[in-house]
Amino acid sequence: MIFKEILKSFTCKRVFFARGPGSFMAIKITYIFLRTLGITKNIELFASDGFNFNGNRPIKAMRKMYFVKKDDKITTEFFEDELKSEFVLPKTIKIENFSKDIEPLYILPAV
Q1: Dihedral of CA 102/108/109/111: which sign?
Q2: Mean pLDDT across the stretch 88-97?
């Protein structure tokens, strides 16, 4: 497991991650895993929405529906054509783009 190796080799004090929007189950599993890691290893957690990692482009929700962020509000929109959205890790972490509000960002109800 990658986190086991990381924690063996490094002293981890903070973890920065995306808390959504996206797959309901993936968001939930990520939250539970990182929250448990934070508690058991005394690691500070910081989260941001996924738009921080894709240049604020639409994020696929399901079929032709996408999450979009406008004026700091996340909603859904339908697009006829499939949109590509590449996620990348930032070269440097700007802590002002993250917060201690780490709870999952659920936009749509579970299906």
Answers
A1: negative
A2: 92
